[in-house]
C-alpha cells in the first residue's frame, strides 16, 4: 500500500466550516474544466488558486469564458508542480496520459487529487493500455486509486488521497443497473446499454465531425464495435454483481450540447420480481441526494437534469416480457464529470455532500 502522507486537514466538520480548501485545476480550457470553475465559483468552502493551460497560458479565464466575468481574476498558467503542490486538492480535467505523469509528485507532497480523466479508473492496466494505446506510468497509484462513484464507495472516498472520477456513460449506466445486479435479480450475462450523448461529450477540440453542419438534424451510433467506456462499465457492473458480466454497450451522438440518456435492458430471472422493482429502486437510492427514482413508467428527459448534479431514472416493463427497462439521464458535464468531482471533493473533506451542488436543473 502507498503511504499517502496527506496534508494535515482537520476532518471535523465544525473546523472545516472555518477553513477554505485551496484548489488547483489542471486543464482548464475544456468543457469539464469550465464546468468545474462554474460550480466552484459559488462553493462557500473553496478558493481556486490556479488553473493551468499550456496552450492559453497568460490569458485571463474570463476572456475565454465570459460567463465567469466577475467570479475569477485568474489567468491560465503553465502547469507547475511546485504551485500545485501548495494546494489542498487538485482536479485534473485533462486528456488521458497527463494525470498519471504528474500525480506521483503531488501524492508525495500530500496533495489530494480528483482525476476526471481515465488514467486511474481501470484496475487492469493491460486492459487500460489496450484501450488507450500507451503503457501506464503510475501503476502503484492506479492500484490504490478509489473509483469515485459515491453511491457505491462513499466510505472509501472519505479517506482517499486519489479519486478516479467516473466517466459520463459509466455513471448513467452503472446507477441504472446497480439495484438489479446487487440483488441478483437479473441475468448478468445479458445486459444491454443503449446510450445517447450530446456533442459536449466529445470535448472542445475542433473536429470536422463535430461541426453543427455535420451533426445537426442527424443521429448516429458510434463505437459500436468497442468504446473506451466499455471496460469501465464492465468493471463497475462486475463489482455490483459479484462476478463477471456480459454487457453490450452502444453509444450514440445526438445533436444537442449536454445530456446523456441511457436505455438499459436486463432479463429478470423470476418474472414475479417485477412487482417489487419500484420499491427496490426507491429504497436503494432513498438516501442518495443526487439520484431521483421517478414513478414507474415515467420517461426522464435530459433537459430535466441540465446543469444539475442529478441522475434521474425510471423503470418500464413491456407486456408479456421478462425484460426490465431502465431509463437513466444525467448531464454529462455535471453528474457525468465536474459535478460528481465536486461531490467527491465534498466527501473527501468532510463537507456536506451537496454543498455547492444544490441548484436545480435549467429549464427551459
Written description of the protein model:
One of its GO terms (cellular component) is cytoplasm. It catalyses: N-acetyl-L-glutamate 5-semialdehyde + phosphate + NADP(+) = N-acetyl-L-glutamyl 5-phosphate + NADPH + H(+). The chain is of the alpha/beta class and 364 residues long. 31% of the residues lie in helices and 19% in strands. It has a seven-stranded mixed beta sheet with strand order 8-9-7-10-13-12-11. A six-stranded parallel beta sheet has the order 2-1-3-4-6-5, with helices on both faces. Strand 3 (89-92), helix 5 (99-108) and strand 4 form a beta-alpha-beta unit. It is globular and about 60 Å long. The N and C termini lie far apart (49 Å). 44% of the residues are buried.
Q: Can you describe this structure in just a few lines?
A:
With 364 residues, the protein is α/β, with parallel strands linked by helices.
Annotation keywords:
364 residues; alpha/beta; Rossmann fold; Dihydrodipicolinate Reductase, domain 2; 2 domains; seven-stranded mixed β-sheet; six-stranded parallel β-sheet; disordered N terminus; NAD binding; oxidoreductase; AGPR; N-acetyl-gamma-glutamyl-phosphate reductase; AGPR_type-1
The end-to-end span amounts to 49 Å
Figure out the total of helices. Answer: 13
Largest sheet composition: 7 strands, mixed
| Overall form | globular
CATH C-level label of the largest domain: Alpha Beta
Give the topology string: H per helix, E per strand: HEHEHHEHEHHEHEHEHEHEEHEEEH
Instruction: Briefly note the CATH topology name of the largest domain.
Output: Rossmann fold
**Widest sheet: strand ordering:** 8-9-7-10-13-12-11
Number of domains: 2
Integer average pLDDT? 94
Provide the CATH architecture of the largest domain.
Answer: 3-Layer(aba) Sandwich
* Range of helix content: 25-40%
Annotation, overall tally of beta strands: 13
Q: Which value, in Å, is the CA radius of gyration?
A: 20 Å
Uncertain runs are: 1-5, 8-17
Q: What proportion strand?
A: 15-25%
Task: Tell me the structural class.
Answer: alpha/beta
Subcellular location: Cytoplasm
Pathway: Amino-acid biosynthesis; L-arginine biosynthesis; N(2)-acetyl-L-ornithine from L-glutamate: step 3/4
Organism: Marinobacter salsuginis
Main location: cytoplasm
